Amino acid sequence: MTTANSRELIARRAEKEIANGDYVNLGIGMPTLVANYISPDKTVVLQSENGLLGIGPFPTEDEVDPDLINAGKETVTASIGAAYFDSAESFAMIRGGHIDVAILGGMEVSEKGDLANWMIPGKVIKGMGGAMDLVHGAKKIIVIMDHVSKKGEPKIKKQCDLPLTGKQVVNKIITERGLIEVTPDGLVLKEVFEGYTVQDVIDSTGADLKIDVNA
Amino acid sequence: MKTIYKSAQEAVEPIQDGMTLMVGGFGLVGIPEQLILALVEKGVKDLTIISNNCGIDDWGLGLLLKEKQIKKMIASYVGENKEFERQALSGELEVELTPQGTLAEKIRAGGAGIPAFFTPAGVGTEIAEGKEIRVFNGKEYVLEESLTADFSLVRALKADTFGNLVYNKTAMNFNPMMAAAGNVTLAEAEEIVEVGQLEPGFIHTPSIYVQGLLQAEQEKRIERLTTR
What we know:
Strand content of chain B: 25-35%
Strand order of the largest sheet of chain A: 4-3-2-1-5-10-12-13-14-15
Oligomer: heterodimer
Strand content of chain A: 25-35%
Order of helices and strands of chain A: HEHEEEHEEEEEHEEEEEHE
Distance between the termini of chain A: 27 Å
Helix content of chain B: 10-25%
Number of strands of chain B: 12
Largest sheet of chain A: 10 strands, mixed
Number of helices of chain A: 5
Radius of gyration of chain B: 18 Å
Structural class of chain B: alpha/beta
Order of helices and strands of chain B: EHEHEHEHEHEEEEEHEE
Shape of chain B: globular
Largest sheet of chain B: 9 strands, mixed
Largest interface: A-B, 54 and 56 residues
């Protein structure tokens, strides 16, 4: 289980994947935290699939509007230059390739970049929400998640066992242990984070890793 | 001029057991609160409900779920609604989970006279099982059929007496497409104004899609109050 500290580390590292001028969709849960760390040097527009382009900060108590929420159903504000629209328009943006980066949570990722994050048969049905559309629409798909499950088992595997959200869709995986790129030649470990060694990451990953870590 | 109902009970009167209803809203935002309450009171059952979510335990569509009035749910997200998840896992409720963008487009297409369309969402997953797959420019797409409903229940900020609608902020969500895809569309508005009072250039749903109107105050429960 990641601690608050490691969630912050993951969110801060994910922020570096966002360029100035990008339009970005952040998934529910840990991905939402990324918004807290966006550098003031960047102009970034956050899209919320329930019909808002330009998510602003959380409101003060006086600013709360029950008709203004993000996709996680949290009350938000709209930033300067924001726009509201319906759900069909929202997913036209997403499917049409207009979103630069999507950051999603994950239950499992395979070595080919398959993602599973919407149900555990017989146990949990969360629903896919917008994730199945996002993984085919956004230009760059980044999955941020714990490196291993609560039981300590690898979540990055040769094949996903859980029902898929999308096949061969993930570009990068960021966990509390490191950053892994999905390439046509398989998974490549690019960065190892403080407190872990390359061997730790290899041992806690259920698929082969090529190592390309700058010392 | 469209029918303006005096009460939600009167508005839902023609809704019968076994009908298919589209209900606007994302979470609890933009749901037609009084029309849903009137459906609970009427006790109409075996409904097929098309809506992104299914409310919460004690509000919105969750009330219909609790009273077992829903036979089938077509939605994209179960999330934290424990009763929805329990009924889905136990098989008491038929559930057709649909990617959110596909759901929105199915409804849009239904209202726009398009019977089906190809989308990449769900290709290679169980969502695409049994559906036609076709390759365009080297990429696979799945054929998805459109949706329509006997009744669509939507929520607007303002309506005029012709039935033109304006929505507030993210309370728009699925409402405009549902308004077009309902055989009969009932719009619950916070305020009904005289025709001519709404600026034509800023109307979200043109009156042609709306058959009945109800003015009703909204409780607007907040699911996750988050402040800075």
